[in-house]
Amino acid sequence: KPLNYLLQKDVPFEFTDECEVAFRKIKELLVKAPIIQPPDWNLPFEIMCDAGDYAVGAVAGAREKTEDKTLNEAQVNYATTEKELLAVVFAFEKFRSYIVNSKVIVYTDHAAIKYLLTKKDAKPRLIRWILMLQEFDVEIRDKKGVENVVADHLSRMSHSKGGPPIEDALRDDTLYAVIDKDSWML
């Protein structure tokens, strides 16, 4: 507050003892802030994911970032396996800028996800998600729900209605061309 006062228009600049204390406090907080500590880019990122009935949660280990999002009306009706894969897709979209070109270990309490990534006859929505995940160096590991407490907690939090929904379609810049590049010529 004392430093903000000095920034006001037509206020004489008097750096009081109160200003000095506030300035030292700001310096102390900036020096200790975790945001100035970059991750070790040589180590893999770890993402813990979980899906509840109405929300998904994800935690990226290297950046100590967490994200959670409420499911929309259609997503609430997904099967459990689809919700769990949606949690993984959500995490990769949210943390994309951190995890691109890095090894990523995904911890989930839903073992079927590991096998779903190799399935060839899945629903179109699942195939879109699997294609998106193939651009990453991903390793899926099982983790019991009781051990995956942070992501489990995020997926079970009570969420207010509203806010942007989870985007479960591929972004324009990640769409894949399935046809031959010369197919427009007859």
Automatic annotation (TrEMBL):
<keyword id="KW-0255">Endonuclease</keyword>
<dbReference type="InterPro" id="IPR041373">
    <property type="entry name" value="RT_RNaseH"/>
</dbReference>
<dbReference type="InterPro" id="IPR043128">
    <property type="entry name" value="Rev_trsase/Diguanyl_cyclase"/>
</dbReference>
<keyword id="KW-0808">Transferase</keyword>
<dbReference type="GO" id="GO:0016787">
    <property type="term" value="F:hydrolase activity"/>
</dbReference>
<keyword id="KW-0540">Nuclease</keyword>
<dbReference type="GO" id="GO:0004519">
    <property type="term" value="F:endonuclease activity"/>
</dbReference>
<feature type="domain" description="Reverse transcriptase RNase H-like">
    <location>
        <begin position="40"/>
        <end position="136"/>
    </location>
</feature>
<keyword id="KW-0378">Hydrolase</keyword>
<dbReference type="GO" id="GO:0003964">
    <property type="term" value="F:RNA-directed DNA polymerase activity"/>
</dbReference>
<protein>
    <recommendedName>
        <fullName>Reverse transcriptase RNase H-like domain-containing protein</fullName>
    </recommendedName>
</protein>
<keyword id="KW-0548">Nucleotidyltransferase</keyword>
<dbReference type="Pfam" id="PF17917">
    <property type="entry name" value="RT_RNaseH"/>
</dbReference>
<keyword id="KW-0695">RNA-directed DNA polymerase</keyword>
<dbReference type="InterPro" id="IPR043502">
    <property type="entry name" value="DNA/RNA_pol_sf"/>
</dbReference>
